[in-house]
Amino acid sequence: MSVEQAPVQRADFDQVMVPNYAPAAFIPVRGAGSRVWDQAGRELIDFAGGIAVNVLGHAHPALVGALTEQANKLWHVSNVFTNEPALRLAHKLVDATFADRAFFCNSGAEANEAAFKLARRVAHDRFGPEKHEIIATVNSFHGRTLFTVSVGGQPKYSDGFGPKITGISHVPYNDLDALKAQISDKTCAVVIEPIQGESGVVPADVAYLQGARELCDKHNALLIFDEVQTGVGRTGSLFAYQHYGVTPDILSSAKSLGGGFPIGAMLTTEDLAKHLAVGTHGTTYGGNPLACAVASAVLDVVNTPEVLAGVKAKHQKFKARLEQIGEKYGLFTQVRGVGLLIGCVLSEAWKGKAKDVFNAAEKEGLMVLQAGPDVVRFAPSLVVEDADIDEGLDRFERAAAKLTQA
Ligand SMILES: *Cc1c(COP(=O)(O)O)cnc(C)c1O
Fold first, then answer.
1. What is the pTM of this model?
2. Has 141 been annotated as catalytic?
3. Deepest in the core among 156, 164, 358, 376, taking most CB within 10 A?
4. pLDDT at 4
């Protein structure tokens, strides 16, 4: 039974929404696999994946099944009670990773908030209040709460909101000497994105992550990997730390974890987890049965050799064709990234114009992403069909041709 709804248009956004976003001119209304349709019935290919979220595309039958089954059973009970989907999801995450314990929340920012609070709590309990400093990296992104923008290395997101959280410093990414110079016995945690996502799809060097691990151990600091963007199969490993072979003490996950349903998770070891004793932290919706049932289904599909191997194969397909397009039209100089998190670095002539590429792609019926002004980002479904990759990249080539001819 469907209830008649009032018609709405893009123009309504400017009337009734807080103007902190600038959404595209069309409104998507339906999706299936890697295709999306807008209000006018126009079909687009989706290489944006809701910003690295729709890990299995749109309306994947396993996720629709898990969600509707749970929707008919139990939606919410709060953390005054536990629930079966949350416990099942925690088991799956613990079995598949270094972690012994999971904390569930509703977004990447909240997963990081929990990670940072845990790191400070552990240091406080073990060493006292002096040891509270957090080292993050320049250009990093960790979310939009006040703590997470303070830790994030982008003043454009943290300036102008009054006093920031203190005790945080930023060192250049992939620069082990800079980290070595900054870290001390006052450091409680070092926070790194294994691949910087928002600021241009910049993968870490293995030696950098290994060196960070060693420095943390030497100074009794915790190593936190923000895997909100890199986690849940994106790199062709379940988590990027497994791809790199460097294990953190705390890991944050969100985005792909819910495949489009909001959920975040902080994973850690038993020894650290015990510092978040009863009452020290929490969130009403965290571990919501609907979210956990969907995330469980996501893991069941993603954490299989076929899907993870497919990510690596699809990476090659994207990379080869994108390099060709970049060279043919002089649009970009480098295609970087791991698995299905790919960034095309715009050439000197197109620097600062990622938005123009985004717009040109949209005109050809293709959804892509920016990662800053100089990088065009692709974060498609991990099970995007090869035929959709070909068709989508044909559209991208048409966009590149028109853009560079104009
Ligand atoms: C998207 C992102 C976040 C923030 O996640 P939200 O769900 O938007 O709060 C944090 N860290 C990284 C690396 C991200 O890519």
1. 0.97
2. yes
3. 376
4. 85
